[in-house]
Amino acid sequence: MSLIRITAGGFTFVAETQADAPNTVAAFEALLPYRQRLIHVRWSGEGCWIPLGDWKLGVTFENHTSHPSVGDILFYPGGYSETEIIMAYGSCCFSSQMGQLAGNHFLSIVQGKENLRALGEKVLWEGAQDIVFEKA
User: Fold this and answer.
1) Which residue among 18, 30, 112, 132 is least packed, with the fewest CB closer than 10 Å?
2) InterPro entries per the record (predicted)?
3) 33 preceded by cis ω (within 30°)?
4) Helix, strand, coil share (%) of the chain residues, nearest 5
C-alpha cells in the first residue's frame, strides 16, 4: 500500500491505497499528480464527486461497493452512468439518475478524516473546489 496526499478546499488529507483494487490503484497512480474539480453529489447522499464523462482509466470492476464508508474513495469505470470518482464524507449510497451504482474502492482517507464533513459542506454551499491527488 502507498499513501496519496489529497488537497481540496483548503484541507489536506492522506489516503492509503487499497490492496483489493490493484488495477485501479496502479492506473490511478500513473496519473499523479492528478488535478480536477470536486462537486457535490446529486443522488448519493453525503459525498463529493469528480464527473469524468466518457473518459476511461482502462480498468474494470474490482473491490466494488455501493456503500462507501466515511473517507472511502471509489472509482466508477463507466457503463450505466458516466465515469467518476466519489468520496464519501457521511452517509452515502452510490447512485446516479440511472439508479444504484458500484465503484472500485481504491483509496481510504487515513489522516484528516475529521475535516471531511467541513469539505463536503464547503462544496455543497460554496460550489466546486479544486482537488489535487499526489504521492505523499
Assistant:
1) 30
2) Cyclophilin-like_dom_sf, DUF3830
3) yes
4) 15, 45, 40
SS3 label, residue 126: helix
Beta strands in the chain (DSSP E): 3-8, 11-17, 34-40, 45-51, 64-65, 72-76, 84-92, 95-96, 99-100, 103-111, 129-135
> Phi/psi class of residue 30: alpha, beta or left (left: φ > 0; alpha: ψ in -120 to 50)?
alpha
pLDDT for 109: 98
Q: CA nearest 43: which of 5, 87, 97?
A: 97
- Cβ–Cβ < 8 Å for 4, 136: yes
Question: pLDDT below 50 — which residues of the chain?
Answer: none
